[in-house]
Design a protein that fits this description.
Blueprint (H helix, E strand, L loop, with lengths): L3 H16 L9 H6 L6 E6 L5 H12 L2 E4 L13 H10 L4 E5 L7 H8 L4 E6 L17 E6 L4 H8 L5 H10 L3 H6 L4 H18 L4 H12 L10 H6 L4 H13 L3 E5 L5 H4 L4 E5 L15 H15 L3 E6 L3 E8 L2 E9 L5 H18 L3 E5 L9 E5 H4 L3
Parallel strand pairs: 1-4, 1-5, 2-3, 3-4, 10-11, 11-12
Antiparallel strand pairs: 6-7, 8-9, 9-10
Length: 395
């Protein structure tokens, strides 16, 4: 239980802090702002430190309202009944807008939101995709408008750095990743700090996982082998876990926290897909190798950036593999629409020949367009479109 006076003081403190913050606009900002006219609760989900809080700051500067961050230690004992006090505070301040940041820290918040949504416009953020998965959240079905927030895209990175859209900027982006604080400070060590906080705060605490060391080991192995095939069984020995189903549950928890995403091999049958190997991709380059910036990582980092670009487009993504292998099949449902492969070493004739051969195999077999994304121009057959990465990532 937290008193109304304490909550009122916290609201006032945040008002003052937000006034003094400089906020850079984000690509999804206008869409989120536009949802202010909707009755539905606006939900913003994404990995920790991706900029959700500053997005709310920008909305508050634009629209007014009452803001609370539920990771504030002064609100550590706040419960569902206390949320009614926040409603009273908003009314007393003459506003009908609430911003509830990292709201997953308050058990039962969904019940309050359901009661208040006709009186208040509510924006909530959370660092877990299961934010609306509780039994209480059933009351909110059909009453939310959800946005997913990622770390900075290449376009946003250029805006934050005031840089030109060229290869030099792309190479810097590949080195730092897109977490706003890392981009602005250049402190790559923050990546490991974010990783540890996600593992212990956003995964272990909310998933009920007790073997945190096994969880960390699985995450590190997957993030150090981006774009490489793995099986759940192969991770049993690495993690010390004895059951394949437990490994699946641990990886699902990592996905829920937006740390990484698992890509499946394409097959027209969803059931068959589940029996195949998998690949993992990071939510941001900052986690690839956890700060071990080796030259050999650059190709995988570029591939990961292309993956994130495709994922932002809300496409259904798979990788292709039978006698040949392709990085990405961009689909609508289970209907392939485009074959994409990524290469860093376009100047190596053998590598380029292999990439072209694999791309042609899937493009011709499925009768779909083909794209080769590369750092530098390369000579390809007319039926293949060569996309330069520093331009491709701006789309």
């Amino acid at each position: 239980m937290t008193s109304r006076d304490v909550i009122d003081d916290v609201v006032s403190d945040w008002d003052e802090q937000i006034k003094n913050e400089s906020v850079m606009g984000r690509d999804i900002g206008s869409a989120v702002s536009g949802s202010a006219n909707l009755e539905e609760i606006t939900v913003i989900r994404g990995v920790r430190r991706s900029g959700k809080t500053f997005l709310l700051y920008g909305l508050k500067k634009e629209l007014g309202g009452v803001y609370l961050n539920f990771e504030d230690e002064r609100l550590i004992d706040i419960g569902p009944a206390d949320l009614e006090k926040i409603l009273d505070i908003a009314v007393s301040r003459g506003t009908n807008i609430l911003y509830l940041d990292e709201v997953q820290n308050v058990a039962g918040w969904e019940k309050f939101a359901h009661r208040a949504l006709r009186r208040m416009k509510i924006f909530v953020t959370g660092s877990n995709s299961s934010l609306l998965a509780s039994g209480y959240a059933k009351a909110l079905i059909g009453r939310t408008k959800t946005f997913e927030m990622y770390p900075l895209s290449f376009r946003e990175f250029l805006k934050f750095k005031n840089s030109e859209p060229d290869r030099r900027s792309l190479i810097e982006y590949m080195r730092t990743g897109g977490f706003p604080r890392i981009v602005m400070t250049g402190d790559l060590s923050l990546g490991r700090e974010y990783f540890e906080r996600i593992i212990y705060r956003d995964v272990a605490s909310f998933s009920g996982i007790t073997n945190v060391e096994a969880l960390r080991n699985i995450a590190i192995v997957l993030l150090s082998n981006i774009g490489k095939e793995f099986s759940y069984r192969s991770l049993e020995s690495v993690s010390g876990l004895r059951h394949e189903e437990t490994v699946k549950n641990y990886i699902a928890a990592l996905e829920d926290a937006y740390l990484l995403k698992v890509l499946t091999k394409f097959h027209p049958s969803l059931k068959v897909q589940q029996s195949y190997g998998k690949k993992a991709y990071s939510v941001d380059p900052a986690f690839i190798g956890l700060g071990k910036r080796l030259d050999s990582d650059q190709g995988r980092i570029l591939e990961n950036l292309v993956y994130l670009q495709l994922r932002r487009s809300n496409a259904d993504l798979f990788y292709g593999k039978d006698v040949h292998e392709i990085d990405f099949l961009v689909c609508q449902g289970l209907k392939p629409g485009k074959a994409v492969t990524v290469t860093l070493e376009a100047d190596d004739p053998r590598t380029l020949k292999r990439e072209i051969s694999q791309l042609e195999y899937f493009g011709r077999k499925m009768d779909i367009p083909m794209e080769l994304v590369s750092m530098y121009p390369c000579k390809v057959p007319d039926e293949i479109e060569n996309r330069l990465a520093h331009r491709y990532l701006l789309e």
